[in-house]
Amino acid sequence: MNQHQLMIPADVYETMVRHGDSCLPFEGCGLLAGIDYEILSFWPFENEIKSDRRFFVNKRVVSATLDQINQRNENVIAIYHTHPSTAPVPSSFDLASHADQNIKMLIVSYKFTTPKAKCYDIAGKSYRECPFFIKPTS
Ligand SMILES: [Zn+2]
Q1: Residue ranges with strand state E in the chain
Q2: Is residue 31 classed exposed, middle or buried when 0-12, 13-18 and 19+ CB atoms within 10 A define those classes?
Q3: pLDDT for 136
Q4: Which 8-state DSSP code applies to residue 45?
Q5: Which residue has the higher pLDDT, 50 or 10?
Q6: pLDDT digits (tens, 9 = 90+) for 82-135
Q7: For 48-79, what is each residue's pLDDT tens digit?
Q8: d(CA 76, ligand 1 centre) in Å
Q9: CA of 55 to the centre of ligand 1 (A)
C-alpha cells in the first residue's frame, strides 16, 4: 500500500472536466502529468475515433506530447478518458488497452448531472481504485 494520495489541483481538474464535456457525446481523452503524486499539467487529446465507447490517439501525437512533458521534467501520472453515458468504471476494453501499469487510469463519467471522476491502478485485468484529492486553487 502506498501512503501517498494523488493530488490534482482544482483548476487542472476543472479544465479536464470541461474538456470531457466539450467532447460529448463522444469520449474525450488526454494525459495528466506531474511529479511523484502531484499532478501539475493536463494534456488534452482529440479522440480520433468519434465513439462514445472508445478512444484512440495516434502515436505521433502522443510522442510529441510526451516530449513536451519531458521538457517540463514531469512524468505522465495518469491517462484520462471519459465515459459519456456509463459509470466511471474501467471497461474490459479499457483494461486490455491500458498501455502501462505504472500509469493510473482516470475516468470522468457524465452519466449523472454532476460529472464524477475516479482514478484506478491497473494490473492486468484487475483494477483498484486510487483515491485522489482535489487541491483548492485560488
Ligand atoms: Zn473507458
Answers
A1: 6-9, 29-35, 38-45, 75-83, 104-109, 116-123, 126-129, 132-135
A2: buried
A3: 95
A4: E
A5: 10
A6: 999 999 999 999 999 998 999 999 999 999 999 999 999 999 899 999 999 999
A7: 888 888 888 999 999 999 999 999 999 999 99
A8: 18
A9: 8
Report yes or no: 88 and 27 within 8 Å, Cβ to Cβ: no
Joined together, the cell numbers standing for residue 69 give 512533458
CA of 72 to the centre of ligand 1 (A): 28
The pLDDT of residue 1 is 42
Domain spans of the chain?
A: 6-135
> How many angstroms separate the alpha carbon of residue 134 from the centre of ligand 1?
22
The Å distance, Cα 47 to ligand 1 centre, comes to 12
| Topology annotation, domain 6-135 | Cytidine Deaminase; domain 2 (3.40.140)
